[in-house]
Amino acid sequence: MKTNVMLELVWKDWRLQRRMITLLTLAGAAALAMLLIGGQAIIIGTVFFFVAMIFCACLVPMQNIVNERKKQTLAFMMSLPVSAAQYGAAKLVSTAGMFLFSWVALLGAALYMILARHALPHGAIPMGMILMGFPLIGFCLVTGTALVGDSEGWATAALAITNSSYWLVWYLIVRHVPSLTKTWGGPVAVWTPAVFKILSVEFAIILFILGLTMFLQSRKKNFL
Amino acid sequence: MTDYAVELEGVCKSYRFFELQNIALRLERGTIMGLIGPNGAGKSTTIRILMGLVHQDRGEVNVLGHRMPEEQIQAKWDVGFASDDMRLYDSMTLGWHIQFMKSIYESWDDRYAQVLLKRFGLRAEQTIKGLSHGQRVKATLLLVLARRPKLLVLDEPTTGLDPVARHEILRELTAVMVEDGRSILFSSHNTQDVEQISDKITFIDRGRILDSMDKEAYLDRWRRLRLEAPDGVALRALPGVIGIQQTGRLAVAIANAFEPHLPNAYESTGARVRAVENMTLEEIFIANVERSREEVNA
Protein backbone atom coordinates (compact mmCIF):
# COMPACT_ATOMS: atom_id res chain seq x y z
CA MET A 1 0.00 0.00 0.00
CA LYS A 2 1.30 3.42 -0.92
CA THR A 3 2.03 5.99 1.77
CA ASN A 4 -0.39 8.82 2.45
CA VAL A 5 1.86 11.60 1.22
CA MET A 6 -0.46 14.38 2.40
CA LEU A 7 -0.29 13.07 5.94
CA GLU A 8 3.51 12.92 5.72
CA LEU A 9 3.59 16.54 4.50
CA VAL A 10 1.44 17.68 7.43
CA TRP A 11 3.60 15.78 9.90
CA LYS A 12 6.77 17.18 8.30
CA ASP A 13 5.47 20.77 8.73
CA TRP A 14 4.63 20.13 12.36
CA ARG A 15 8.13 18.79 13.02
CA LEU A 16 9.66 21.86 11.34
CA GLN A 17 7.54 24.44 13.17
CA ARG A 18 6.77 22.88 16.54
CA ARG A 19 9.39 24.90 18.43
CA MET A 20 7.96 28.20 17.17
CA ILE A 21 4.37 27.14 18.00
CA THR A 22 5.35 26.05 21.48
CA LEU A 23 7.16 29.33 22.17
CA LEU A 24 4.24 31.44 20.92
CA THR A 25 1.76 29.47 23.01
CA LEU A 26 3.95 29.83 26.08
CA ALA A 27 4.24 33.58 25.44
CA GLY A 28 0.43 33.84 25.31
CA ALA A 29 0.12 31.78 28.49
CA ALA A 30 2.68 33.99 30.25
CA ALA A 31 0.63 37.06 29.27
CA LEU A 32 -2.46 35.43 30.73
CA ALA A 33 -0.63 34.69 33.95
CA MET A 34 -0.14 38.43 34.38
CA LEU A 35 -3.90 38.74 34.98
CA LEU A 36 -3.39 37.12 38.38
CA ILE A 37 -1.25 40.06 39.51
CA GLY A 38 -4.24 42.43 39.24
CA GLY A 39 -4.33 46.21 38.76
CA GLN A 40 -2.55 47.55 35.65
CA ALA A 41 -1.17 44.09 34.94
CA ILE A 42 -4.66 42.99 33.85
CA ILE A 43 -4.62 45.49 30.97
CA ILE A 44 -1.00 44.73 30.04
CA GLY A 45 -1.62 40.96 30.24
CA THR A 46 -4.74 41.20 28.07
CA VAL A 47 -2.96 43.28 25.45
CA PHE A 48 0.07 40.94 25.39
CA PHE A 49 -2.26 37.94 25.19
CA PHE A 50 -3.82 39.31 21.99
CA VAL A 51 -0.43 40.39 20.69
CA ALA A 52 0.76 36.78 21.07
CA MET A 53 -2.35 35.54 19.24
CA ILE A 54 -1.95 38.05 16.41
CA PHE A 55 1.78 37.31 16.19
CA CYS A 56 0.95 33.61 15.90
CA ALA A 57 -1.62 34.35 13.16
CA CYS A 58 1.10 36.18 11.18
CA LEU A 59 4.12 34.04 11.85
CA VAL A 60 2.67 30.57 11.24
CA PRO A 61 1.60 31.16 7.61
CA MET A 62 4.72 33.19 6.85
CA GLN A 63 7.04 30.48 8.17
CA ASN A 64 5.11 27.52 6.89
CA ILE A 65 3.94 28.72 3.48
CA VAL A 66 5.79 31.83 2.32
CA ASN A 67 9.20 30.57 3.43
CA GLU A 68 8.74 27.32 1.50
CA ARG A 69 8.61 29.33 -1.73
CA LYS A 70 11.17 31.93 -0.63
CA LYS A 71 13.74 29.36 0.49
CA GLN A 72 13.12 27.26 -2.64
CA THR A 73 12.11 24.09 -0.81
CA LEU A 74 8.81 24.10 -2.71
CA ALA A 75 10.37 22.40 -5.75
CA PHE A 76 11.59 19.60 -3.47
CA MET A 77 8.08 19.13 -2.06
CA MET A 78 6.47 19.23 -5.49
CA SER A 79 8.84 16.53 -6.75
CA LEU A 80 6.94 14.18 -4.42
CA PRO A 81 3.84 12.34 -5.65
CA VAL A 82 1.34 15.11 -4.90
CA SER A 83 -0.72 17.46 -7.05
CA ALA A 84 -0.88 21.22 -6.52
CA ALA A 85 -4.34 20.83 -4.98
CA GLN A 86 -3.13 18.12 -2.58
CA TYR A 87 -0.11 20.17 -1.62
CA GLY A 88 -2.39 23.16 -0.98
CA ALA A 89 -4.76 21.06 1.12
CA ALA A 90 -1.86 19.62 3.16
CA LYS A 91 -0.46 23.11 3.72
CA LEU A 92 -3.85 24.40 4.79
CA VAL A 93 -4.34 21.52 7.22
CA SER A 94 -0.85 21.80 8.72
CA THR A 95 -0.89 25.60 8.99
CA ALA A 96 -4.42 25.71 10.41
CA GLY A 97 -3.62 22.80 12.73
CA MET A 98 -0.59 24.58 14.14
CA PHE A 99 -2.44 27.84 14.65
CA LEU A 100 -5.49 26.13 16.12
CA PHE A 101 -3.28 24.20 18.52
CA SER A 102 -2.08 27.49 19.94
CA TRP A 103 -5.50 29.18 19.64
CA VAL A 104 -7.41 26.41 21.40
CA ALA A 105 -4.76 26.10 24.12
CA LEU A 106 -4.84 29.84 24.78
CA LEU A 107 -8.63 30.00 24.62
CA GLY A 108 -8.78 27.19 27.15
CA ALA A 109 -6.24 28.94 29.34
CA ALA A 110 -8.17 32.24 29.13
CA LEU A 111 -11.44 30.53 30.09
CA TYR A 112 -9.66 28.82 32.96
CA MET A 113 -8.34 32.17 34.18
CA ILE A 114 -11.85 33.67 34.08
CA LEU A 115 -13.93 30.74 35.30
CA ALA A 116 -11.59 29.09 37.80
CA ARG A 117 -9.23 31.87 38.88
CA HIS A 118 -11.71 34.77 38.54
CA ALA A 119 -9.06 36.96 36.94
CA LEU A 120 -11.77 38.78 34.94
CA PRO A 121 -15.55 39.03 35.40
CA HIS A 122 -17.62 36.31 33.66
CA GLY A 123 -19.36 39.02 31.65
CA ALA A 124 -16.13 39.40 29.61
CA ILE A 125 -16.50 35.91 28.10
CA PRO A 126 -18.84 36.78 25.15
CA MET A 127 -16.69 39.77 24.14
CA GLY A 128 -13.56 37.63 24.62
CA MET A 129 -14.99 34.97 22.29
CA ILE A 130 -15.72 37.61 19.65
CA LEU A 131 -12.22 39.06 20.00
CA MET A 132 -10.66 35.59 19.73
CA GLY A 133 -12.34 35.34 16.32
CA PHE A 134 -10.36 38.30 14.98
CA PRO A 135 -6.92 36.66 14.89
CA LEU A 136 -8.59 33.50 13.55
CA ILE A 137 -10.04 35.46 10.60
CA GLY A 138 -6.74 37.31 10.16
CA PHE A 139 -4.90 34.00 10.14
CA CYS A 140 -7.23 32.56 7.46
CA LEU A 141 -6.82 35.64 5.28
CA VAL A 142 -3.01 35.63 5.51
CA THR A 143 -2.86 31.86 4.97
CA GLY A 144 -5.16 31.98 1.94
CA THR A 145 -3.26 34.87 0.39
CA ALA A 146 0.12 33.25 1.04
CA LEU A 147 -1.04 29.99 -0.53
CA VAL A 148 -2.84 31.38 -3.55
CA GLY A 149 -0.83 34.58 -4.08
CA ASP A 150 2.50 32.77 -4.57
CA SER A 151 4.46 35.76 -3.33
CA GLU A 152 5.76 37.28 -0.15
CA GLY A 153 4.40 40.65 -1.30
CA TRP A 154 0.76 39.55 -1.32
CA ALA A 155 1.11 37.81 2.03
CA THR A 156 2.71 40.91 3.55
CA ALA A 157 -0.11 43.06 2.15
CA ALA A 158 -2.67 40.72 3.73
CA LEU A 159 -0.74 40.95 7.02
CA ALA A 160 -0.75 44.74 6.92
CA ILE A 161 -4.47 44.91 6.13
CA THR A 162 -5.54 42.45 8.83
CA ASN A 163 -3.26 43.85 11.53
CA SER A 164 -4.40 47.41 10.94
CA SER A 165 -8.07 46.37 10.82
CA TYR A 166 -8.37 44.71 14.23
CA TRP A 167 -8.86 47.95 16.16
CA LEU A 168 -11.31 49.31 13.55
CA VAL A 169 -13.51 46.21 13.63
CA TRP A 170 -13.41 46.22 17.44
CA TYR A 171 -14.40 49.90 17.47
CA LEU A 172 -17.30 49.32 15.07
CA ILE A 173 -18.61 46.38 17.10
CA VAL A 174 -18.43 48.29 20.38
CA ARG A 175 -20.09 51.32 18.82
CA HIS A 176 -22.90 49.49 17.02
CA VAL A 177 -23.63 46.77 19.58
CA PRO A 178 -23.99 48.67 22.86
CA SER A 179 -25.45 45.64 24.65
CA LEU A 180 -21.99 44.11 24.61
CA THR A 181 -20.31 46.90 26.54
CA LYS A 182 -23.13 47.04 29.08
CA THR A 183 -22.62 43.48 30.22
CA TRP A 184 -18.88 42.81 29.85
CA GLY A 185 -18.07 43.96 33.38
CA GLY A 186 -20.93 41.97 34.94
CA PRO A 187 -20.67 38.82 37.01
CA VAL A 188 -22.61 36.72 34.47
CA ALA A 189 -21.89 35.96 30.81
CA VAL A 190 -24.81 37.31 28.78
CA TRP A 191 -25.23 35.56 25.41
CA THR A 192 -27.45 37.98 23.51
CA PRO A 193 -28.66 37.35 19.94
CA ALA A 194 -26.19 40.04 18.83
CA VAL A 195 -23.28 37.99 20.21
CA PHE A 196 -24.44 34.88 18.34
CA LYS A 197 -24.92 36.95 15.18
CA ILE A 198 -21.37 38.33 15.34
CA LEU A 199 -19.91 34.88 16.05
CA SER A 200 -21.90 33.42 13.12
CA VAL A 201 -20.62 36.13 10.78
CA GLU A 202 -17.04 35.43 11.92
CA PHE A 203 -17.56 31.71 11.29
CA ALA A 204 -19.06 32.37 7.84
CA ILE A 205 -16.11 34.61 6.88
CA ILE A 206 -13.66 31.88 7.92
CA LEU A 207 -15.50 29.25 5.87
CA PHE A 208 -15.66 31.57 2.86
CA ILE A 209 -11.91 32.36 2.96
CA LEU A 210 -10.92 28.70 3.35
CA GLY A 211 -13.33 27.57 0.60
CA LEU A 212 -12.11 30.25 -1.79
CA THR A 213 -8.50 29.34 -1.04
CA MET A 214 -9.08 25.68 -1.90
CA PHE A 215 -11.02 26.60 -5.03
CA LEU A 216 -8.33 28.94 -6.35
CA GLN A 217 -5.54 26.56 -5.41
CA SER A 218 -7.13 23.70 -7.36
CA ARG A 219 -7.37 25.89 -10.48
CA LYS A 220 -3.72 26.89 -10.57
CA LYS A 221 -1.90 26.15 -13.82
CA ASN A 222 1.59 27.32 -12.97
CA PHE A 223 2.87 26.04 -9.71
CA LEU A 224 6.57 26.89 -9.76
CA MET B 1 2.93 0.10 -22.06
CA THR B 2 4.49 2.76 -24.28
CA ASP B 3 8.14 2.40 -25.33
CA TYR B 4 8.81 5.95 -24.30
CA ALA B 5 9.61 7.16 -20.82
CA VAL B 6 8.73 10.69 -21.90
CA GLU B 7 6.61 11.79 -24.85
CA LEU B 8 5.73 15.41 -25.65
CA GLU B 9 3.71 16.19 -28.77
CA GLY B 10 2.72 19.65 -29.97
CA VAL B 11 3.28 21.21 -26.55
CA CYS B 12 2.81 24.98 -26.37
CA LYS B 13 2.98 27.35 -23.44
CA SER B 14 2.75 31.12 -23.61
CA TYR B 15 4.04 33.63 -21.13
CA ARG B 16 4.10 37.39 -21.54
CA PHE B 17 7.65 37.49 -22.90
CA PHE B 18 8.31 33.88 -23.77
CA GLU B 19 6.65 31.16 -25.76
CA LEU B 20 7.29 27.45 -25.89
CA GLN B 21 6.35 26.46 -29.43
CA ASN B 22 5.14 23.10 -30.59
CA ILE B 23 7.56 21.00 -28.56
CA ALA B 24 7.87 17.38 -29.67
CA LEU B 25 10.21 15.16 -27.70
CA ARG B 26 10.57 11.42 -27.21
CA LEU B 27 12.80 9.71 -24.68
CA GLU B 28 13.03 5.96 -25.14
CA ARG B 29 13.12 3.81 -22.03
CA GLY B 30 16.64 2.94 -20.95
CA THR B 31 18.31 5.92 -22.57
CA ILE B 32 19.86 9.19 -21.41
CA MET B 33 18.79 12.32 -23.20
CA GLY B 34 20.66 15.58 -22.87
CA LEU B 35 18.55 18.68 -23.35
CA ILE B 36 20.93 21.45 -24.37
CA GLY B 37 20.03 25.09 -24.72
CA PRO B 38 21.29 28.53 -23.80
CA ASN B 39 19.88 30.36 -20.78
CA GLY B 40 16.20 31.18 -21.33
CA ALA B 41 15.84 28.62 -24.12
CA GLY B 42 12.89 26.84 -22.48
CA LYS B 43 14.64 23.86 -20.88
CA SER B 44 13.23 24.46 -17.40
CA THR B 45 9.73 25.24 -18.70
CA THR B 46 9.74 22.01 -20.72
CA ILE B 47 10.87 20.06 -17.67
CA ARG B 48 8.30 21.72 -15.41
CA ILE B 49 5.58 20.84 -17.89
CA LEU B 50 6.59 17.21 -17.98
CA MET B 51 6.67 17.16 -14.17
CA GLY B 52 3.14 18.62 -14.04
CA LEU B 53 4.37 21.73 -12.22
CA VAL B 54 3.32 23.96 -15.10
CA HIS B 55 0.30 23.07 -17.24
CA GLN B 56 0.71 23.28 -21.01
CA ASP B 57 -1.71 25.46 -22.97
CA ARG B 58 -1.87 22.86 -25.75
CA GLY B 59 -0.39 19.49 -26.62
CA GLU B 60 0.01 16.04 -25.12
CA VAL B 61 2.48 15.07 -22.42
CA ASN B 62 3.05 11.48 -21.33
CA VAL B 63 5.44 10.41 -18.59
CA LEU B 64 5.95 6.68 -18.01
CA GLY B 65 2.60 6.10 -19.69
CA HIS B 66 0.73 8.65 -17.56
CA ARG B 67 -0.96 11.70 -19.04
CA MET B 68 0.33 14.94 -17.56
CA PRO B 69 -0.70 16.96 -15.67
CA GLU B 70 -3.86 14.90 -14.92
CA GLU B 71 -2.02 11.77 -13.78
CA GLN B 72 0.99 13.47 -12.23
CA ILE B 73 0.58 11.75 -8.86
CA GLN B 74 0.85 8.26 -10.34
CA ALA B 75 3.75 9.33 -12.58
CA LYS B 76 5.71 11.02 -9.81
CA TRP B 77 5.95 7.82 -7.76
CA ASP B 78 8.45 6.61 -10.35
CA VAL B 79 10.11 9.90 -11.28
CA GLY B 80 13.09 11.39 -9.48
CA PHE B 81 13.31 15.13 -10.07
CA ALA B 82 16.08 17.53 -9.11
CA SER B 83 16.80 21.04 -10.33
CA ASP B 84 19.49 23.60 -9.66
CA ASP B 85 16.97 25.87 -7.90
CA MET B 86 15.76 23.12 -5.58
CA ARG B 87 16.76 23.49 -1.93
CA LEU B 88 16.47 21.26 1.11
CA TYR B 89 15.46 22.44 4.61
CA ASP B 90 18.43 24.44 5.88
CA SER B 91 17.91 23.84 9.57
CA MET B 92 17.44 20.07 9.28
CA THR B 93 20.04 17.36 8.87
CA LEU B 94 20.56 15.18 5.83
CA GLY B 95 19.50 12.25 8.03
CA TRP B 96 16.17 13.99 8.71
CA HIS B 97 15.63 14.34 4.96
CA ILE B 98 16.53 10.69 4.43
CA GLN B 99 13.97 9.64 7.06
CA PHE B 100 11.36 11.87 5.44
CA MET B 101 11.91 10.33 2.00
CA LYS B 102 11.97 6.86 3.51
CA SER B 103 8.58 7.50 5.11
CA ILE B 104 7.12 8.25 1.68
CA TYR B 105 8.82 5.82 -0.70
CA GLU B 106 8.56 2.10 -0.13
CA SER B 107 11.17 1.71 -2.86
CA TRP B 108 13.74 3.59 -0.73
CA ASP B 109 17.01 1.66 -0.80
CA ASP B 110 18.77 2.13 2.54
CA ARG B 111 21.88 0.24 1.50
CA TYR B 112 22.28 2.31 -1.65
CA ALA B 113 21.74 5.50 0.39
CA GLN B 114 24.62 4.45 2.68
CA VAL B 115 26.81 3.74 -0.35
CA LEU B 116 26.01 7.16 -1.80
CA LEU B 117 26.66 8.89 1.54
CA LYS B 118 30.13 7.38 1.55
CA ARG B 119 30.79 7.91 -2.14
CA PHE B 120 29.72 11.57 -2.02
CA GLY B 121 31.62 12.21 1.23
CA LEU B 122 28.48 13.24 3.13
CA ARG B 123 27.43 12.62 6.72
CA ALA B 124 23.80 12.05 7.74
CA GLU B 125 24.15 14.17 10.88
CA GLN B 126 25.22 17.30 8.95
CA THR B 127 22.67 20.10 8.75
CA ILE B 128 21.98 21.33 5.23
CA LYS B 129 23.07 24.90 6.02
CA GLY B 130 26.53 23.56 6.88
CA LEU B 131 27.00 22.01 3.43
CA SER B 132 28.80 23.58 0.48
CA HIS B 133 26.94 24.07 -2.81
CA GLY B 134 28.48 20.92 -4.25
CA GLN B 135 27.54 18.92 -1.16
CA ARG B 136 23.96 20.23 -1.32
CA VAL B 137 23.65 19.10 -4.93
CA LYS B 138 25.02 15.70 -3.97
CA ALA B 139 22.62 15.48 -1.01
CA THR B 140 19.67 16.27 -3.28
CA LEU B 141 20.81 13.65 -5.79
CA LEU B 142 21.23 11.11 -3.01
CA LEU B 143 17.61 11.69 -1.98
CA VAL B 144 16.50 11.25 -5.58
CA LEU B 145 18.67 8.27 -6.51
CA ALA B 146 18.06 6.17 -3.38
CA ARG B 147 14.35 6.11 -4.27
CA ARG B 148 15.34 4.00 -7.29
CA PRO B 149 13.10 5.92 -9.71
CA LYS B 150 12.42 4.57 -13.21
CA LEU B 151 12.93 8.02 -14.69
CA LEU B 152 15.34 10.72 -13.57
CA VAL B 153 14.59 14.29 -14.60
CA LEU B 154 17.46 16.61 -13.82
CA ASP B 155 17.33 20.31 -14.58
CA GLU B 156 20.88 21.67 -14.74
CA PRO B 157 22.13 19.54 -11.85
CA THR B 158 25.79 20.29 -12.44
CA THR B 159 25.53 24.10 -12.56
CA GLY B 160 28.07 25.76 -10.30
CA LEU B 161 29.91 22.56 -9.40
CA ASP B 162 33.66 22.13 -9.44
CA PRO B 163 35.10 19.61 -11.96
CA VAL B 164 35.58 16.88 -9.35
CA ALA B 165 32.01 17.14 -8.03
CA ARG B 166 30.70 17.20 -11.61
CA HIS B 167 32.67 14.09 -12.44
CA GLU B 168 31.35 12.29 -9.34
CA ILE B 169 27.77 13.13 -10.17
CA LEU B 170 28.04 12.20 -13.85
CA ARG B 171 29.71 8.92 -12.88
CA GLU B 172 26.84 8.13 -10.52
CA LEU B 173 24.26 8.92 -13.18
CA THR B 174 26.01 6.62 -15.62
CA ALA B 175 26.09 3.90 -12.94
CA VAL B 176 22.33 4.25 -12.44
CA MET B 177 21.84 3.29 -16.07
CA VAL B 178 23.35 -0.14 -15.45
CA GLU B 179 19.91 -1.07 -14.14
CA ASP B 180 17.68 -1.98 -17.06
CA GLY B 181 14.86 0.24 -18.13
CA ARG B 182 15.95 3.37 -16.27
CA SER B 183 15.88 6.60 -18.24
CA ILE B 184 17.37 10.04 -17.64
CA LEU B 185 16.42 13.41 -19.04
CA PHE B 186 19.20 15.79 -18.24
CA SER B 187 19.16 19.49 -19.11
CA SER B 188 22.25 21.64 -19.20
CA HIS B 189 23.95 24.44 -21.02
CA ASN B 190 27.23 22.63 -20.43
CA THR B 191 27.73 20.55 -23.56
CA GLN B 192 30.71 18.71 -22.10
CA ASP B 193 28.58 17.15 -19.36
CA VAL B 194 25.87 16.17 -21.79
CA GLU B 195 28.33 14.74 -24.32
CA GLN B 196 29.93 12.64 -21.58
CA ILE B 197 26.81 10.70 -20.57
CA SER B 198 24.01 11.12 -23.13
CA ASP B 199 22.82 8.65 -25.76
CA LYS B 200 20.52 11.13 -27.37
CA ILE B 201 20.74 14.90 -27.61
CA THR B 202 18.10 17.56 -28.13
CA PHE B 203 18.90 21.18 -28.86
CA ILE B 204 16.44 23.83 -27.78
CA ASP B 205 16.56 27.60 -28.33
CA ARG B 206 14.03 30.40 -27.91
CA GLY B 207 11.24 27.98 -27.07
CA ARG B 208 11.73 25.72 -30.10
CA ILE B 209 13.33 22.30 -30.51
CA LEU B 210 16.06 22.74 -33.10
CA ASP B 211 17.14 19.15 -33.49
CA SER B 212 16.96 15.84 -31.68
CA MET B 213 18.94 12.70 -32.50
CA ASP B 214 21.50 10.16 -31.27
CA LYS B 215 24.76 11.66 -30.06
CA GLU B 216 26.80 9.50 -32.44
CA ALA B 217 24.63 10.59 -35.36
CA TYR B 218 25.36 14.23 -34.53
CA LEU B 219 29.07 13.63 -34.32
CA ASP B 220 29.03 11.58 -37.58
CA ARG B 221 26.92 13.99 -39.57
CA TRP B 222 28.54 17.25 -38.58
CA ARG B 223 31.93 18.12 -40.09
CA ARG B 224 34.02 21.20 -40.71
CA LEU B 225 35.78 21.37 -44.09
CA ARG B 226 38.73 23.71 -44.47
CA LEU B 227 38.89 24.70 -48.13
CA GLU B 228 41.15 26.71 -50.41
CA ALA B 229 39.36 28.33 -53.33
CA PRO B 230 40.92 29.25 -56.69
CA ASP B 231 41.71 32.98 -57.09
CA GLY B 232 38.59 35.11 -57.39
CA VAL B 233 36.14 32.22 -56.91
CA ALA B 234 33.48 32.43 -54.20
CA LEU B 235 32.64 28.93 -52.98
CA ARG B 236 28.99 28.08 -52.48
CA ALA B 237 27.31 25.75 -50.03
CA LEU B 238 26.82 22.32 -51.60
CA PRO B 239 23.99 19.99 -50.50
CA GLY B 240 24.61 18.93 -46.88
CA VAL B 241 26.46 22.16 -46.08
CA ILE B 242 24.59 24.68 -43.93
CA GLY B 243 27.06 27.54 -44.04
CA ILE B 244 30.27 28.66 -45.64
CA GLN B 245 32.55 31.49 -44.56
CA GLN B 246 35.22 32.68 -46.96
CA THR B 247 38.06 35.12 -46.34
CA GLY B 248 40.14 35.59 -49.47
CA ARG B 249 41.05 32.16 -50.76
CA LEU B 250 40.43 30.37 -47.47
CA ALA B 251 36.98 29.08 -46.61
CA VAL B 252 35.35 27.04 -43.85
CA ALA B 253 32.25 25.00 -44.68
CA ILE B 254 30.04 23.52 -41.96
CA ALA B 255 28.23 20.34 -43.00
CA ASN B 256 25.25 19.02 -41.02
CA ALA B 257 24.68 16.07 -43.34
CA PHE B 258 28.21 15.06 -44.17
CA GLU B 259 28.68 12.35 -46.80
CA PRO B 260 32.09 10.87 -47.76
CA HIS B 261 31.73 12.24 -51.30
CA LEU B 262 31.41 15.86 -50.10
CA PRO B 263 35.19 16.62 -50.18
CA ASN B 264 35.33 15.24 -53.75
CA ALA B 265 32.38 17.41 -54.70
CA TYR B 266 34.30 20.50 -53.55
CA GLU B 267 37.47 19.29 -55.33
CA SER B 268 35.43 19.07 -58.53
CA THR B 269 34.55 22.78 -58.22
CA GLY B 270 38.26 23.58 -58.29
CA ALA B 271 38.68 24.02 -54.53
CA ARG B 272 41.38 22.23 -52.56
CA VAL B 273 40.25 20.43 -49.41
CA ARG B 274 42.90 21.18 -46.78
CA ALA B 275 41.20 19.31 -43.92
CA VAL B 276 38.00 17.55 -42.86
CA GLU B 277 37.55 17.95 -39.11
CA ASN B 278 35.17 16.45 -36.56
CA MET B 279 33.20 18.98 -34.55
CA THR B 280 32.67 18.99 -30.81
CA LEU B 281 29.13 18.94 -29.47
CA GLU B 282 29.57 22.53 -28.36
CA GLU B 283 30.52 23.61 -31.88
CA ILE B 284 27.56 21.68 -33.30
CA PHE B 285 25.26 23.29 -30.75
CA ILE B 286 26.47 26.81 -31.53
CA ALA B 287 26.22 26.23 -35.30
CA ASN B 288 22.69 24.88 -34.83
CA VAL B 289 21.58 27.86 -32.73
CA GLU B 290 23.15 30.39 -35.11
CA ARG B 291 21.51 28.77 -38.14
CA SER B 292 18.13 28.70 -36.43
CA ARG B 293 18.36 32.34 -35.36
CA GLU B 294 19.38 33.38 -38.90
CA GLU B 295 16.37 31.51 -40.29
CA VAL B 296 14.03 33.18 -37.80
CA ASN B 297 15.50 36.64 -38.46
CA ALA B 298 15.45 36.18 -42.26
Sequence-ordered SSE layout with sheet pairings:
The complex is a heterodimer of chains A (224) and B (298).
Chain A: H1 5-33, H2 40-70, H3 74-78, H4 84-115, H5 124-149, H6 152-176, H7 178-183, H8 193-218
Helix pairs in contact in A: 1-2, 1-4, 2-4, 2-5, 2-6, 4-5, 4-8, 5-6, 5-8
Chain B: E1 4-14, E2 19-28, E3 32-36, H1 43-50, E4 58-63, E5 66-68, H2 72-76, E6 79-83, H3 94-104, H4 110-119, H5 133-145, E7 151-155, H6 163-176, E8 183-188, H7 191-197, E9 200-205, E10 208-214, H8 215-221, E11 223-228, E12 241-247, E13 250-255, H9 262-268, E14 272-278, H10 281-297
Parallel strand pairs in B: 3-8, 3-9, 6-7, 7-8
Antiparallel strand pairs in B: 1-2, 1-4, 4-5, 9-10, 11-13, 11-14, 12-13
Helix pairs in contact in B: 4-5
Primary descriptors:
heterodimer; A: 224 residues; mainly alpha; 0% strand; elongated; B: 298 residues; alpha/beta; Rossmann fold; 2 domains; six-stranded mixed sheet; four-stranded antiparallel sheet; 33% helix; 30% strand
Q: What report would you give on this structure?
A:
The complex is a heterodimer of chains A (224) and B (298). By secondary structure, chain A is mainly alpha-helical. In chain A, 80% of the residues lie in helices and 0% in strands. Chain A is built from eight helices and no strands. Chain A has helices at residues 5-33, 40-70, 74-78, 84-115, 124-149, 152-176, 178-183, 193-218. In chain A, α1 (5-33) runs parallel beside α4. Chain B has helices at 43-50, 72-76, 94-104, 110-119, 133-145, 163-176, 191-197, 215-221, 262-268, 281-297, and strands spanning 4-14, 19-28, 32-36, 58-63, 66-68, 79-83, 151-155, 183-188, 200-205, 208-214, 223-228, 241-247, 250-255, 272-278. In chain B, α4 (110-119) packs antiparallel against α5. The mean pLDDT of chain B is 91. In chain B, the strands form three sheets. Chain B has a six-stranded mixed β-sheet with strand order 6-7-8-3-9-10, with helices on both faces. In chain B, a hairpin with a 2-residue loop joins β9 (200-205) and β10 (208-214). Chain B has 298 residues and is an alpha/beta fold. The radius of gyration of chain B is 22 Å and the shape is elongated. At the A-B interface, α1 and α3 of A face α2, β6 and α3 of B.
